Amino acid sequence: MARVKRAINAQKKRRTTLEAASGYRGQRSRLYRKAKEQLLHSGNYAFRDRRARKGDFRQLWITRINAAARANGMTYNRFVQGLKAAGLEVDRKVLADLAVTDPTAFAALVRTARAAALMRVIHSCRKSPLRARRSR
Question: Which pLDDT tens digit goes with each residue over 114-133?
Fold first, then answer.
């Protein structure tokens, strides 16, 4: 059986690893073992942070919506409650974009949410058994 020589394959593997690590600092871009280890860590960080980025953006959107809602005299919590009571399903990304780019449209949504929240409070007061007991 013929002998297998791996020089070309091994060199190719090392070259691709070092090319992938080309922007790293110090030995991590020059030595194969250090570069290989750093690429493993980098892959883990990238995987973790792709998921963390989704939460970061959600937090940013909520902050922007809250600021715009408070500018219109309403808290974020009451605003979202009012939208749900009104039957409006607008995601936070779109709401945050509206808050930044089109304040008049956002103000209209706040008015709608305020009216729906008020109607919800009125209806809940009518149906409340505690309210009926107190009136006797």
Answer: 999 888 777 776 665 655 55
